[in-house]
Amino acid sequence: MPTLTQRLQTAPTPMAGLALGISSLGWSWESFAPLEGRAQLAGAIAATVLLLILSAKFVLHPRLLRSDLAHPVVGSVVPTFAMALMVVSKAAGAWLMPSIGVALWLVAVALHLSFLVAFVVHRTRAFELHHMVPAWFVPPVGIIVADVAFPGVSVLHPLAIGLLYVGMGLYAILLPVMIYRLIFADEIPDPAKPTIAIMAAPASLSLAGYLTVVSTPSPLLVALLGGIAVLMTLIIYLAFFKLLRLPYSPGYAAFTFPMVIGATALAKTADWMQSHGFSAHDVAIVHTLATLEVIVASVIVGYVALRYLGFYLRGWRAGALTRPA
């Protein structure tokens, strides 16, 4: 029977994306129902378990982390570990101590920036256009999760603003290159196709971060980001008819966070519109869209979590059945 250490080696790095999706979903539901933080806490606890498994894997087997960082696809999803930790830090600050939340947030930001540097170094050494997949948005744009989860400490506000504009600027640069790659380069291989769902995330994440840390948002920028966010989300909804037919792989985790952050961004937009005197009718439309998106996100996250659970339970049972007599 495999030892625990051996089993930890098989924990897939994309599971960090599932942790991000679960923790974000719990937090997002707080905008739609009077849950008094319980959904946020539940999501953070579930995510923490997954992050601890991956932490143990990388501490016991650091060569696996080095190998992941060097991979053109897996290396781009490693930062979801730091992004999930940012979301968990928000729950920790609310349920434990604010100082714990701030400390975790700072650690997560430092981790993400380290992963970003490693990603850039590896990809510039061996750049190939066909290596590009939508997951490449994660290292440069995913840092904006730090703004969505910003702990509200005034001395850290300039850092949060800097991270926001760096992430948005890199998104603006990378988006046309990614579209060119998707149109003119080789087809994305099946194991990496789930990352196509990530196309829905950057605009929504930019909008959510912008509305969180900018005190006087520009209505024009809100409208621009909101329009792109809804359009990209609808495109991925259509893409799901094919993506969900792909054979199961840990890459399914890429389906989760993009759906959740879309709902979160629209919920924040509805709140912003209401506070700025928009008509009740217009606010209701945006809030209804947000509600529909969080329901879809809940279904997707639940489905992916069950697929993960079922796959790895079968794997563990198979290991137990092959135990020597």
TrEMBL record:
It is a multi-pass membrane protein. It comes from the Bacteria. It is found in: Membrane. The chain crosses the membrane at residues 12-29, 41-60, 72-96, 102-121, 133-153, 159-183, 195-214, 220-240, 252-272, 284-306. InterPro entries: SLAC1/Mae1/Ssu1/TehA, Tellurite_res_ion_channel, Voltage-dep_anion_channel_sf. Its main location: membrane. Signal peptide: none annotated. Keywords: Membrane, Transmembrane, Transmembrane helix. This is C4-dicarboxylate ABC transporter.
